[in-house]
Write a structure and sequence with these properties.
Jelly Rolls; seven-stranded antiparallel beta sheet; alpha+beta; 13 helices; 576 residues; single chain; Rhopdopsin 7-helix transmembrane proteins; six-stranded antiparallel beta sheet; 3 domains
């Protein structure tokens, strides 16, 4: 077990160093030779006045001639209730979303169609829109730019003196350089200040030209500028979410040509995506998580202190596994503290601080390993019914613990990998599969204990006590099954049906169910003299030579061995 713990720590450090360059809410994704027809870049819950900044830094399309009018290329921003692939209906998977002419249920849908032949990006806003888009329009030479250049030339090259139309001396307004030289030095400085101010106005005006602002809904079609540099295309836009359009949005890249069976044309692109809400970089469903985790950490720490007090109060009935349960509760509390700190820095900085992230992942690995070790030991009846594990039970530990470490490593990789990367879906499937295997394997020791008690209740004469233990083991089996089903299935279904701003309740339900499971497990296995798990058989004549039963934690590791000599029975205690 200590080896498993050390393996968790080493794996945590290893993968943290490998993934140190990944960011959280300030995304930068680079894909090379990609062939997927849709790349899910991100899912984010926007409140009103939330912002989305997208910069397509480089897009390289295949050299083959493609009909981009029939098979368009571009991005889609769609509002949906649920996240990820669950948001796609059958119609959306069979038809390229970039070809839609209307949105389902008038939900906001914004399409960015890249036209490489005309070096433009055609923006199509569908549904009920309440968003503001700021981007550079496609234009040859905006009039405001010429006006700014005339202002700049007038400021740098003052006009020459001209004659008064009525004749006579030149007017003061048309004074030349000689007239300026006759002015005091303060007038020269004032003229330089005016030139500098006019240059600033020109720069501001040029920026306004570059970032034109449009109210989507009033304007449903726009044509943005697409730049081509060294064979790659790039453009950018900034969007602000309106009050009526707030919700959960999916941002995807589409290459519709690859939807045709048998066609896998490779393309490459690099994109930067930054999403923000008025309060920080967290999605709407993640904003309460920092406070939730720190509060639950306090609750778990309080429960751990109460458990330690109980162990100290009943120290003569305490086994080693009781202290293992205490270590699990404290590790869970510490893990939640680091989880809360991690989310705090993501909200303020846009990415986690590496040191705090390392501490969170290490405690997360330890918590996962301790949880399954404790459940497996309790399920086998170790220390409560027997202190020696059978060969079958040892094999379960050899399988479950490495799988649990792998599941935690997969979780770390998923947390640190961009959603649009090819490895994200692979590791997500690995995590789901390994987690199900671990949850199923952890039930085997409990089933074996139930079967052993069923057989013992009818053969060894201690039927009443064994039937009572059998009843409690069955209750514990039901507890584990309910905990696994609730946290893996029911809570996820509740998350899908909740509004986007309430999806944090999924994490709340998981943490509360974990707390209830810990409390019920501690109550059933509490160190007390009247605990049915710790009761001894009343008739010592029924204690067989190969059967080992411990009386209390103070005598843990001490067994009673019955021997017969010269017609007399005598018992002696031997230390194992």
């Amino acid at each position: 077990m200590a080896v498993a713990h050390r393996g968790c720590v080493v794996a945590g450090y290893l993968f943290l160093f490998l993934l140190a360059g990944c960011k959280a809410r300030i995304h930068k994704l680079a894909l090379k030779n990609e062939t997927r027809f849709v790349v899910h870049l991100n899912t984010f819950g926007f409140y009103a006045n939330g912002t989305l900044d997208v910069s397509l830094l480089s897009l390289r399309l295949p050299e083959q001639l493609v009909n981009y009018s029939k098979y368009p290329v571009g991005f889609s921003l769609s509002r949906s209730r649920v996240s990820g692939v669950l948001s796609y209906t059958a119609e959306e998977t069979e038809t390229c979303p970039l070809t839609f002419t209307k949105s389902t249920n008038n939900e906001p849908l914004i399409l960015f169609l890249i036209d490489v032949s005309n070096l433009s990006v055609n923006v199509r806003a569908l549904g009920d829109q309440d968003n503001t888009l700021r981007a550079k329009l496609k234009a040859e030479m905006p009039p405001s730019k010429d006006k700014g250049q005339r202002k700049r030339r007038a400021a740098v090259d003052p006009p020459q003196p001209t004659e008064n139309p009525k004749g006579g001396k030149p007017s003061d307004d048309a004074a030349g350089p000689e007239k300026l030289n006759e002015k005091p030095n303060g007038s020269v400085d004032q003229n330089k200040a005016e030139i500098k101010e006019e240059k600033t106005e020109v720069a501001v005006e040029a920026k306004k030209v570059e970032e034109n602002e449009f109210q989507l809904g009033k304007t449903n079609q726009l044509t943005l500028a697409l730049e081509k540099v060294n064979g790659s295309y790039n453009f950018r836009f900034h969007m602000e979410v309106g009050l009526l359009a707030e919700g959960l949005y999916n941002f995807n890249f589409h290459y519709c040509q690859n939807m045709v069976p048998g066609i896998d044309l490779p393309y490459s692109f690099t994109v930067e995506v930054t999403e923000k809400n008025p309060g920080g970089y967290l999605s709407a469903a993640e904003i309460p998580l920092s406070r939730l985790y720190i509060c639950m950490a306090g609750v778990f720490f309080t429960a751990a202190m109460i458990w330690v007090y109980t162990l100290m109060k009943h120290r003569y009935s305490v086994f080693k596994i009781h202290w293992l349960m205490a270590a699990l509760a404290f590790t869970k509390s510490i893990s939640l503290v680091f989880h809360s700190i991690n989310y705090h820095f993501i909200n303020t900085e846009g990415h986690p601080i590496e040191g705090w992230a390392v501490m969170y992942y290490i405690t997360h690995l330890l918590k996962g390993a301790l949880l399954f070790i404790t459940l497996a030991l309790i399920g086998t009846g170790w220390a409560f019914v027997k202190y020696i594990l059978s060969d079958k039970e040892k094999k379960i530990f050899m399988i479950v613990i490495p799988l649990q470490v792998l599941a935690n490593v997969a979780y770390i990789i998923i947390e640190s990998t961009e959603e649009g990367s090819s490895e994200y879906a692979l590791w997500k499937e690995i995590l789901f599969l390994v987690d199900l295997i671990c949850c199923g394997a952890i039930l085997f020791p409990v089933v074996w204990s139930i079967r052993h008690l069923q057989e013992a209740s009818s053969t060894d004469g201690k039927a009443a006590m064994n039937l009572e233990k059998l009843k409690l083991f069955r209750h514990y089996y039901v507890m584990i099954v309910c905990y696994i089903y609730f946290t893996r299935i029911i809570a996820i279904l509740l998350k899908v049906t909740m509004p986007f701003q309430w999806q944090w309740c999924y994490e709340f339900l998981v943490e509360v169910s974990t707390l209830i499971f810990f409390v019920l497990t501690g109550y059933k296995f509490r160190p007390a003299s009247n605990n049915p798990y710790l009761q001894l058989p009343q008739d010592e004549e029924d204690v067989e030579m190969d059967e080992v039963v411990t009386e209390s934690g103070a005598l843990e590791g001490i067994s009673k061995v019955k021997k017969t000599s010269n017609g007399r029975e005598r018992q002696k205690e031997s230390t194992l």
